[in-house]
Every structure is written in C-alpha cells, then in structure tokens.
Amino acid sequence: MGFTFTEIMPAWPEIFLACAAMGLLVLGVFMKTGAARSISWLSVLALVATGILEIVVVPDGGRVHIFNQLFVADVFTTFVKCLILGASAVGIIMSLGYNDREDIARFEFPILILLATLGMMMMVSAADLISLYVGLELQSLSLYVIAAFRRDSVKSSEAGLKYFVLGALASGMLLYGSSMIYGFSGSTNFLQLAKVLDADASAGIIVGLVFVMVGLAFKISAFPFHMWTPDVYEGAPTPVTAFFAAAPKMAAMALFISVLVGPFGNLVAQWQQVLVLIAIGSMLLGGFAAITQSNIKRLLAYSSIGNMGYALIGLSAGTKDGYSAVLIYMSIYLVMTVGAFAVVLCMRREGRMVEEVKDLAGLSKTQPAMAALMALFMFSMAGIPPLAGFFGKFYVFLAAIEAKLYILAIIGVLASVVAAYYYLRIVMTMYFTEPVEDLDRNVGPELSTIQAIAGAFVLFFILFAEPVVQMTNQAIASLTSG
Amino acid sequence: MYVAAVFLPLLGAIIAGLFGRAIGDRASQLVTCGLMAVSAVFGCVIFYVVALQGLDKPLIIPVFEWISVGDLKVNWSLQFDTLSAVMVFVVTVVSCLIHIYSIGYMHHDPGIPRFFAYLSLFTFSMLMLVTADNIVQMFFGWEGVGVCSYLLIGFWHHRESANAASIKAFVVNRVGDFGFALGIFGLFAMFGSVEFVNLLADGAGAEALKKTYQIAGYSIAGQDALNIVCILLFVGAMGKSAQLLLHTWLPDAMEGPTPVSALIHAATMVTAGVFMVTRMSPLFEYAPIALAVVTVVGASTALFAATIGLVQTDIKRVIAYSTCSQLGYMFFAIGVSAYPAAIFHLMTHAFFKALLFLGAGSVIHGMSDEQDMRKMGGIWRKMKVTYTMMWIGSLALAGIGIPLTIIGFAGFFSKDTIIESAFAAHTGWGEYAFWLGIVAAFMTAFYSWRLLFMTFHGKTRASSDTFSHVHESPPIMLIPLMGLALGAIFAGALMVDLFVGDKFKEFWGGAIFILETNKALEHAHHVPMWVKFSAIAVGVGGITVAVFYYLLIPSLPALTARVFRPLYVFFLNKWYFDELFNFLFVRPAFMFGRFFWKKGDVATIDGLGPDGIAATALRSSRLVAALQTGFVYHYAFSIMIGAVALISLYLLGVMR
C-alpha cells in the first residue's frame, strides 16, 4: 500500500527527526575532535526544528489517522510532543558541561537522546497496540543505554542493567496484556477497540488491560512498579537522571491518557479503580519514603514518584477536566524538575559532583541567587501558592472533587503535607545552616540560564495560567473528539 | 483646628516612628515637639472657645464611618464640649511640656526617635479617648493609651524588670478592660446604640430604669441592669486608674523613663478612668449602688495608697503611690456626685503631679540615675531651681492655702472641694470617704515633706563620687518645670469659681449630669467651719510631724518603725497585695498553664498529633526505605505482586 508525501504530512516531524539522528550519527563518525559538542548543539537544533515542524503540520481540530490507522495526530499529540522536544533539548544542553568535566563527552549521547525522543513521539502518536510497543521499545532501549553511559562507573552500569532487566519484564507484561486484548477482541487497533469494547467487557479484556496498565505504570514509575526509580536515578549520570525525570515521564503519561481514553474509554469504571489505588500508593510512598533520604537524586526520585501519583489523580477522575489537569500538572512538573536538576548539576566541589542534601548547607550565603531559585522550586513542588506547583495540584484536586473522589483528594492533600516536609528541609538546609565548604562557582551559562527560565516560569505562572489551561482544554477536546 | 489638635500628634508619631532612623534624633525631636506645641496652642484655643465662651450644644465633627454592621453603627468623630475641652487642654499642654522636657532627659538615650514617636502616639490616643463621641471610639483610645503605656514602661527593653513591669501593667489593665468591654456590650444590649448622643441623652437613664431587659435568657430589672453595667464600666476605670485591687501595676510602671511616669502614669492616662465615669454621669446618676461602690473603692484607695507612700524609699514610687491616692480622691468625689470637683482635681493634679515627677526626674538625672532616697540628701544647694519646684509641687499636693480666701495652691482648692463634698453628701458612704480623706490628707502632707527632706536636706548619704557630680539640670528641663509650676500655683485659684463655684452647672453645660437630689457639690460651700479647716489643719500637721521626724530628730523614724514593726512591714510590703495576687492568680495560672502545656499539649496533643504522626511518618519511611534492597529480583517480585494483586482484586469483585 502506498502513501503520498502529503498524505503522511502529520508524520513529517518524526521522519525528519529520524533522518536527522541518522545523519548526525554519520557526521559524528567522520568528525574527529570536539565532535560531541557540535553534534550536541546540532541535535538541539534538530529538536527545535522538529518542534517547529510539529507546530506547522498540526491538524486544525479533529484527529488525523495515517499509515492504516497506526499513527494519529491532533492538538493533543502536538502539545505533548512539543513539551517532550523541549525537555529533550534542555536535557542535551544540561549534559554538555557535565559530560565534558566527567570525561564522558561522546557524540553518541545526544544521538541516543534524539532516538529516545523519536520513540516517545511515536508512543504519543500511537493508534495501535503494535505501533505503541514499537515506539515504547525504541524509547526504552535508548534510555537503557544512556543510563549506563558512564561505562567505567559501577553504579552507572548497575543502573542501566537494572533498568534494562526490569524494563524488559514490564515490556513483556505490556505485550502479554496486548495479546490478551487481541485474543478477546480480535483487534489491536485503537479505533476498532473503542468500537468493540463496552462497559461490560469480558474478564479477559480486563486482565489484559491491567497488564497493559502495569507496563505503563512502570514507565511512569508509579507504585508498586516504582522500585527501579531510586536506584536508577541515583546511579545514572546526573544529566541523564534529569532527562529521565522529565521527557519520558511526560511521554508515558500522555500514552497512559491516550490508551485509557481512546480504546478503553468505555471501561472507565474498571480502570478508574485501579488508577485510584496506584495514585494513592504513589503519593504516600513518594511522601513517606523521601523523608529519610539524604541523597538528593534519590530524594528527587521519590519526589517524582509522588508527583506521578498526583498526576494520576487527574486521570482517575475520568473527566475532560481531569485529563486537562493532568496535562497542566505534567507541564508544570516538567519545568520544576528541570529547574531543580539544573541546581543539582551545579553541586560540585573542587571539580567533583556532590549529591547529599547536606552539601547544600548555607547555600543562601555563598550563592544567594541559586539558593533562592532552588527554594522557589522546592516551594513550588510543595504546592505553595502563588507558585506554579500550587496550580498543578489545585487543578487535579479540583477534578477529583468534581468527580466525587473525595477520599482520593483528601489523601492527596495529606500526602502533600508529608512531601512538604522534605522539600522544606532542603530550603532549611540552604538557609538556616552554616556553610560547610563552598560549592564551585563556575557552573557555566547554560545551567544558570535554565535555572532562571524555570524560576521565572514557576514564579509567573499565575499570570499566564489561563492561556495554558485553554491550551490543555483544546488538546483534550481534540483527543476525545473521536 | 479641632481635628488638627487631635491628629497632629499622630502625624508626629508617624514621622518619628517610621522615618526616625532616616531623619535622625534631632529632627525627630523637632518634628514631634513642634507638632505637639501647635497642638497645645490649639488645645488652649479650644479650651477658650468651648469651655470659657461656651457652646449651645456639643460640637461633633464627623471624620468618617467606621463600623456598620446590622444595628451597630460606629463613626469616627470628635465631640467637643466643656468636659472634653478641659481634657484636651490638660493633655495637650502637659504633653507638650513633657515632650520638651524629654529632649533634655533622654539626650543620652540611643532610642530617641522611638521614644518621641511613642510619646506622640500616646498623646494622640489620649486625645482620641477624650474627644470620642461614642463609647467604642473611646475604647479605641483607651486601648491605644494602654498599648503606648506598655511600650513606654518597657522602653528600656534590655532591663528585665522593665519588661516584667510592662507585662504586668498590660495584664492588670486587661482585667479592667474586660470589665469595660462587658460594660459596653451591656450598654449596647440595653440601648441598642453606642453613640453618646443616644446613651447619654436627657432621660435615657431614667427610661432605662422602667424597662426590663432580657439578657441571655434572664430577665433583669432596669435598675439592676444599670447598676451592673455601671459597675462593669467602673471596673474598667479601676484598671486604668489603678484603684484598689487593680492598682498593683502603677508602682511597677515607674520602670519607664521618668517623663513617661509624669505624662502617662500621673497626669493623663491614669485619669482616663475618672474622665470616663464622669462622661457616663447621666447613667451613673441613676445607679446608686454603682456610685456607692465608686465611693468606697475611691476612699479606700486614697487611704491605702497613702499608707504605703509613708514608708517607700524609691523617690518615684512615693510619688506613684501618691498618684494612686489622689486618684482615689477623684473617685470618691464622683461617688458623691461631685463630678466637677473630680475633674477639677484631675486638672490641678495633672499640673502638680507632673511637676513633682519631672522634679524627681531632674533629681535622678542630677544624681546619676539614683532613685533611692536613702542615698540622697543635702543636695538642695546644688539644685536650687529643682528644689524650689519640688516645694511648689509638694505644697500643691498637700493642698496648702488659706480657707475662705482665694489664696492657695492648686491642690488646695480642688482637694478641699472634694473633702467638703464628701461631707456634704450626708450619706454613710460620704461620711466614710470624708474621714478617710482627712486621714489620707495628713499622710499626704507627711510623705511629701519626708520626700523633700530626705532628698534635699540633712547630711548627704550619697557616695562622695556621686555627690560631687550632682548638678542642676539644663534649661530645657527646667523651663517645662516652671510652666507646670505656674499651673500648680495658679490653676486652682483661677478656675475654682468656674469649675465648682456656684454657677458650675452653666460652665459644664450638658457635659455633666447631676440628679436634682444629689446636691453634695452645692452644699459643699456651706459646710461647718471645722470641716473647711480640717483639711488644711491635718496638712499642716503632717508637715510639722515630718519636720520633727526628718529634720529635728532624725532618730524618730527608726524608733517608730521599731515600735510599730508589724504595721511598718505591712506598709513597706504594700499590704502584701502583690504576694496575695501572686498566690491567688499568678501561681494558679502558671500551674494551669504548665499543666496544659506539659500534660495537655506536649503529652496529649503533640504526642498523639504532630509528634506522634511525625514519628509514625519516620517509621514508615524507614520501613519503605528498607524495602528498597537493591536486588533486581526483589524489584521484579514487587512488580509481579503488584500485577497479581491488581488483577485478583478485580477478579474477586472488590473493585466493582
């Protein structure tokens, strides 16, 4: 079956990115010294270009299916992909200085990120269980590699290996679930499934759905499939951790939405129950487990587990407002996380990375600007108004209340109190303890710029909250239009 | 002009308080004193226009609406009638003189702008209190002066005793204010209004007597209700005016700088209670029981405080107890319906007591901050002006003058009028007040001269170092003293006819209401001769005894103290009121506090609440962290368990 070039226009960005990645790979091989830096910037350029292309080809309203209904594009996918592309670009930029200093600067690194990004875009646009799996695996395989990118470090290798083994298990479960769904419904296509499945689906379908959800929950590191997260976050090189915490989470969450809302939209009563449990578990675990963490990367790992729980609140509400709240939450989370990791990347002393919370002691005296920004991110994550994080939580709780999920909302609020403790502990360490030793100051302009932009976003989100909400509403409207 | 007189001190307070650091000490002093001086000039003009020339009806100047909730409407507005004009006059003039005096007294203090800001803020609050046209605004001023008093007593906040004293003043005043607030609620419940126009209108009190009130399910006869409300209001006055039982804070308040003692704790704030009860005279007149209470408390305070004054050795404390005693005089004057006499004494007292305090301040200043009279003596040659001023103040306080003429110091006229009114009331309580007043007058004269002799005469008991440094105060401190001395000498003779003469009702207009049947003040002029001479006689007697005790036979005081040892110790320890209150209230309060803190809060609420939850959180955190073993097969196991659990929950139907 043939396609004309214009017919497949919604897939242009993906095609462009794939070509760019391969082109840069070839280029990197031929370049001799300094390849890593130039290839990195070219990769950033490629990501930006892909983003622009994405905005150019976005269908006006409605959904467009191509490649025999394997691939879908609409405002929702565009919105999510733009966020992913941005997060990936920032991820590459953040890694530049680190990789140089740690002597692991290789041109394969940005290319792996490009490929992972491509996988994520495929996931988001998947309209069939098969294309979903292919996208997911492209992403995952790239991520396994960069987790272990620092080959000479035992921790890094261990992180990559653990991620790979457990990821393979989760992929297997997802695949197993897909096969059950196919067996009981006769189709892997989302549109077909949506037509076939109704509220009283057979047990086989439900079991298959639960398996698929387990696979997806693993990717967003929700309880009880989160165990890999702290170990991988701690072991992987810090910029990789930053990247892990941002783009793949966004992609997996978007996939979660589109799978549950699209083919299994009629089974909302069934998956809602599962999601509520996962959300509660994630929030509580994220809150309590982080209290005793002293390694800031581990702490942020638990923080991201908790944050996924909050995002799932919006999803389990099962309403348009809820889905929209998830998108808002994830966008804000993305920025806060990137900002926080940009600070963590600045934590080096005499040229070596330090990762303990106590290394931040007295930062307000030695580097007041950075301490203020970190405090801003922490307050925002704790959900203190008028910072961005407050709005994220506000919208998901609002959606839960409107969906009459009162217990879920109450537990969410209580868990956020627990979480506030460890966020504020970081602020306290920075502001109320005496500095032990100075952190190095030459952090490079990229990191400070990223911190400043993220800080401005967190601080001034209140001013442009309305347009963002409208954008997410539009995205969700196009997703649910059929 | 009227508004300016009240608000200029506020302006000064704001400038000195907020920008004092920026504009410096000198500028802060100039601004506050300058504005205060303008305000004082306006105060004099107001006194002339409103009180001397007289107005047909009270002048009410609305400023803006304050509260409007349901039936409750309260405005900010200023009311000027004779009563408030007298008060504005006294407050602005005395305050102005004390502002100027403070420039000299506080010149070495690091917190000058703050001090002047507080002084001006106090003056504003006091003016707000006396010009209020409703009782809520009066309460605002009442609390305002309370706060300023607190701030100024604790002005030297690095001194522990000053902090303790300021807290004590605040807490004791709270007790009184509680009564006052209850009184206000009662008034609103009875009259449905807080405006003086309605509360104090002609016949409002008489109306109230006829009604029966339903309050909190109880029905209360009008007479009882009025008595209760008036007694509650008087409890407020007792707190602020340091009457018996609620007096304990006033002597301790002497921890504040001396100008503060003069302005707040002698001349103005402590008289707020007297003013308030006088303002409410149209109600008190219909509440005979309340009046009797006022009489007894006032007379008892007059005597009680005088007895303590006899034996104190701190120069400021002697004057403080004297203030307490004089306030007692004012109250029993009110109790026998001689309100004009009370206000008259309030005014003269403001002058001579401020004079005494500032004189004492001058002595303390000259003696390198020594306040103990036992370490003074023989300094009169070195501070002749201060010495003269103290004499004038003491003569005025003791009420020296020649009966039946208009020759006499200010206190002579006002105090005699009060004592005569008490006698002329011809009631049992009046009789009680009269005799106590006479005894107290004797003691007043005695302790005043005891103070003079111990401080200025005899061989010095100061260290030779201190004594050689004794010096007269600078002119900036002496000139205000002279201004007050003029008041202490002439205020009585000049005003006696206006305030309490035969035509006093015309002077006061509608500001003071006295029932036709209560004629104590009218009859005061026609008391038997022996009554007229009794006060001056005991006064002179007191001075004579003091001369014997402290000039001629210096061994007598010690002998007397030995012979009447129990009495002496009793007086010296201020009738053990502090100890009694400590035992009755403070210690039980601390005990309760400690109980609720240790057992209630820490053990129960914290234990089960925050601390318990926090401990649980920590435990669960450790537990979860322990699950994180680092072994891949554990992690894989958790994934499998999770999947199995979710599916079984679903299949078992739990999730339906």
Could you characterize the architecture of this molecule?
The complex is a heterodimer of chains A (482) and B (656). With 482 residues, chain A is mainly α. Helix content of chain A is 74%, strand content 2%. Chain A has a two-stranded antiparallel sheet with strand order 1-2. In chain A, helix 9 packs antiparallel against helix 10 and helix 11 packs antiparallel against helix 12. Chain A is globular. The mean pLDDT of chain A is 88. Chain B has 656 residues and is mainly α. The radius of gyration of chain B is 30 Å and the shape is globular. The interface between A and B is medium-sized, with 35 and 26 residues.
Attribute tags:
heterodimer, A: 482 residues, mainly alpha, two-stranded antiparallel ribbon, 4 strands, 2% strand, globular, B: 656 residues, two-stranded antiparallel sheet, 28 helices, 74% helix
Q: Tell me about the biggest sheet of chain A? A: 2 strands, antiparallel
Shape of chain A: globular
Q: Report the β-strand fraction of chain B as a percent range.
A: under 5%
Helix content of chain A: over 70%
* Major sheet of chain B: 2 strands, antiparallel
> Mean pLDDT of chain A, nearest integer?
88
Query: Largest interface, counted with CB-CB under 8 A?
Result: A-B, 35 and 26 residues
Structural class of chain B: mainly alpha
Structural class of chain A comes to: mainly alpha
| Strand element count of chain A | 4
Low-confidence stretches of chain B: none
What sort of overall outline of chain B do the alpha carbons produce when their principal axes are compared? globular
* Helical percentage of chain B: over 70%
Query: For the terminal residues of chain B, how far apart are their CA atoms?
Result: 81 Å
Order of strands side by side in the largest beta sheet of chain A? 1-2
What is the string of SSEs of chain A from the N terminus onward? HHEEHHHHHHHHHHHEEHHHHHH
